[in-house]
DUF4445 domain-containing protein
Amino acid sequence: IGLVGSSETRLYCLPSVSAYIGADIVAGAYVCELEKTKENVLFIDIGTNGEIVLSSKGKLLSCSCAAGPALEGMNISCGMRAANGAIEDVYINEKENEIKVIGDEQPVGICGSGILAVVKELIRTGIVMD
């Protein structure tokens, strides 16, 4: 595969379960020994795809869905990916609200972490009840 190493170098590759349940979540489930759990456990990997493995008394069930659009502000009128100009954090206080913008630039939209920060602040201040 074109990797340079000594003649003693070994390469281990884990299998994917399917096109969207990749070796990354397989590795995580393996390292956490989900097949040995005696209780219900959820193992979650959120990236471009959201992958979830449920271990129910050692029996594993997995699923995947698109997560990138949710974390990139898809269908939010001012949503954007986490790039320069994206609001990534918000703090609501009595005197003046504060925002943190990626790249310390003028805000041009809000990314997924910024939306979560708004929700956190709305709950923290009692504007929205959880």
